[in-house]
Amino acid sequence: MRGHRVVATGRRALGHPDYVQQDLTRTCNFKATPDVVVHAAARSSPWGSERKFHQQNIEATRHVIEFCRSRGRPHLVFISTSAVMYTNAHQFDLDETSPLPSHAINRYAASKRRAEALVQDYEGPWCIVRPRAVFGPGDTVVFPRILKAARTGRLPIIESDQPVKGDLIYIDTLVDYLLRIVELRTTGLYLLTNNCPVLILDFLGSVFARLKLPTPKRRVPVGRAMATAAVLEAAYGLLPFLGEPPLTRFGVSVFAYSKTFDVSKALRDLGPPSVSLGDGVNRFVESLLQNPTP
């Protein structure tokens, strides 16, 4: 990072001099006294137990804040999610002033919403960012599930009442925004996207074609898809050893309802995206072609 020494933390053991192994679900015990803390660790998944989301997203954030309080209250940058704003309906041009729904769309969103509240109570300077659909090399959340379903022929077309649009953000764009926030000591709440909403089916179709994956053909009405997902969630909830169900209500919602954002505040304070969406997709597809998933 430009002119800064960076110390990273994580649960895994890595042989790097600027890395400290630390499970954030426990009290932070490393000795660094930072100027800025970027809290990016989270359970980012559409599925999981309430206990795991509480431990990894709420308690971990609480421990990070306690660490900051014990180190002179440095600038805290918290990576949240735009999912805290979602409902099972089309939502267009959401911005930082848009009210949050009365009920979170899933456990992940609920846990991040509670973590945001903890950050907002922090006595030092803080910045919360809500990125939308982060993708790029190393993605373990968004595209792996989609590509696996497409590769096995299990990805349906969810029939909505209108073409579904959505915003995304390329990983390098997000990282560069975080660097700007650190360098400018920016505070407050920011929505972050590539400021380039796409038609979801057309966007995925172009990616599938470049990866030589089959185009989804099977059409399922959104009501039936939601009902099927609810049954699967109930069954997998009773039998946790099965892991994540092949279809979740959140997953259906992603394909059934538009989500676009007005990022005028970020454009004004932080500047334009550093990598265009088109260039980001090209880089991502190239990485997948070079390192295909088995």
Automatic annotation (TrEMBL):
Key words of the record: Isomerase
Entry GO terms, CC: cytoplasm
UniProt-listed Gene3D superfamilies: NAD(P)-binding Rossmann-like Domain
A GO term for molecular function: aldehyde dehydrogenase (NAD+) activity
Residue ranges occupied by any NAD-dependent epimerase/dehydratase domain in the UniProt entry: 3-184
Pfam families xref list: Epimerase
PANTHER family linked to this entry: NAD(P)-BINDING DOMAIN-CONTAINING PROTEIN-RELATED (PTHR48079:SF6), PROTEIN YEEZ (PTHR48079)
Designated name of the protein: 3 beta-hydroxysteroid dehydrogenase/delta 5-->4-isomerase
Lineage summary: unclassified sequences, metagenomes, ecological metagenomes
